[in-house]
Specification:
The protein is of the alpha+beta class and about 190 residues long. The longest helix has 19 residues. It is globular, with a radius of gyration of 15 Å.
Length: about 190
Amino acid sequence: MIGKRCARQKSFSGNVNGAPRLKSPGITSMASKQLSPHFSYDELTTTELRQFIELNRGMGVNHIPQLKKVCVDLLEPIRAKWGPVIIHSGYRCPDLNKAVGSSNRSQHLLGQAADFHVLGRRNGPPLRDVWAWIWQESELLFHQVIWEMSSWIHISSTTGYNDGQIMDYNNFKYTKYKNVNGLLKPY
């Protein structure tokens, strides 16, 4: 199921400047709502699977405080350091989460996670530099930071339990790391 999820997330529909791209009937007042200076509700509830967009945005309104926390505490500092951040996925309603093959324990279901890349740092080493900065230098407080498929970064808000997880996901396998004096040690 992870492979299905990864294939779906390779493209993105986020907007560089945080402006809305798609307004769904019935929730147009939320579609343009800013969650932080550079991120909108629209961006954090977007999906390539258009059949889920209205449902996802409709259910996402129940998770605005969590989405704001992701934006303010995690995404804004990343943007301040690296430039415009392109959101691949933020909040996911249960139906969307299932359709992309994600875990039923995903923090995306709670509005506590975002998958993204930085403009101009889409793949490989340039994006890995962002991932390394997050766990090595930034002092950001996160639950997980995962470099996925060498194509995007997953980051999630702290939960108070087992926070600070550093991982990468490649070839359908997660590798967990410990930060030992600024160096990654697999475990």
